[in-house]
Structure prediction request, 342 residues.
Amino acid sequence: MHNDKHNPAGKPELVCPAGSLRALQLAVDAGADAVYLGLRNATNARNFAGLNFDDGQLREGVAHAHARGAQVLMALNTYARADDEATWYAAVDAAVDLGADALICADTAVMAHARRQHPGLRLHLSVQASATSHEAIAFYRRRYGVERAVLPRVLTLSQVGHVLRNTDVEIEVFGFGSLCVMVEGRCALSSYATGQSPNNAGVCSPPSAVRWHDTQEGVEARLNGLLIDRYAASEPRGYPTLCKGRFNVNGRRDYALEEPTSLNTLAILPELIGMGVRAIKIEGRQRSPAYVQQVTRVWRAAIDAAAAAPDRYRVLPEWTATLGHLAEGQQHTLGALDRPWR
Prediction:
């Protein structure tokens, strides 16, 4: 399933999120080449009630994926606690026992354990490691045998190309889903407001900290008491995160940090393929199985079309319509990949 290093225009893998066994099954059946998932503990960054896999579900999910030619990538992408590193090491061992094809890791101690105890296990460098240069990626390759690196969503398209030209490690990029103004999940804003790390809490705004209040001025969204947005009665309300709230700045009320938009790279898919990107990742382990199924179908069709005839490739209206209904804020952006002001 992995493309030849010397075939830069080879078809990239479609890597889709699986927050549940049902999401895994629908993603695989809709054409995912690989799914990524996590265990029900703090070893993954979506440690959230109602999500993730116990051992039995993971075994069933691996069997479903493998029977259809798809791979299972297990996210062990948080940093081990100083007083409980054994939990992370046990998760590495469990991944091997349960048949995962690769681990997605950020912590060097976790990677060292995997390399020492399971030298044949494939390691992918998590976006949480924030490796944005080919030199950083080469370090992880040299020390831990990392075979793929997931690039953070802060690089421009030219920077992605520079990394690809200077590494023999497979490169995976995000194609669709949520954006983050922070360094991939290490959010000082959410931590300040709630006292909980977004990685360890499994989500940017823990439900226990979110409150909605009807007032004469509209519906207020508060995070641990902090007012982060106010909506008119008829206005659609998104999932309330501090960075995507509206604030009064110099007398103007607007999205001060980031608008609620979804990354969508469909328009530049032939360029990503031509550069030699090995995998396109869809964000969203906290999304519904129906969301995962619909997004996977669109991206399966798009990748196949772009790889088969890049010169004739165009974004179909039905793809745009489907993703538009699923996008955050029902808006799309190319994110950092396209910075026309540079």
